[in-house]
Amino acid sequence: MVFAGAGDVVAAQTLRFVTYNATLRSHDHGRAVKTFQLVQGTADDIAFVMAAERLPGYENFVGRWSEAQHRAALADSHHAYFIARLESQDIGFAIVRDWASPERVACIKRIAVSRPGQGHGKMFLASLVDRIFRETEAHRIWLGVFPENDRARRAYEAAGFKAEGVARGSAFFGGVHRDELVMALVRPDWLAGRS
Q: How far apart are CA 8 and CA 88, in angstroms?
């Protein structure tokens, strides 16, 4: 599979899966090489996560937790944190809830990139989905997106997520209850998309 967006790679380059830990490299016979990594987040990453949550323009779309909430989630076996790195620079984070749950359903609780509009989000999301399906027995990955967040919705659709319906008033965000569009990707669809 090829994941690329404007600004990600030099023209005519492709990205290929290099290692099991979701490292992607771009190659083009002697041109610049960019390395993308998806690494397990730690307490050392909380400052980056909190800064990314609070970027201008994200206040209406990205949830925000306190440092104490992040520390509690990191210590909880039900959450997994991931940091996306491009050329050793942190460019995004994700929080996956119900990691390796016995119900085999995982929720992408939060995902954000620090520089939107450069194609990093699609690459990050595809790598995260691959990692969830490879490292757990998840049958289904789901997420909630505010219906008016067109950029995120397009990225989720490009990764294979399908809209399932609107959960009315399911997100208490900014002091009000907001609707969320529930989107999901099931393992058989992910496998079919890989072939």
A: 14
* Top-tier CATH class for 14-194: alpha beta
Q: Give the pLDDT confidence of 111-166 residue by residue, as tens digits.
A: 999 988 887 888 899 999 999 999 999 999 999 999 999 989 999 999 999 999 99
What local confidence, expressed as pLDDT, does residue 30 receive? Answer: 54
Q: pLDDT tens across 156-192, in order?
A: 999 999 999 999 999 988 889 999 999 999 999 999 9
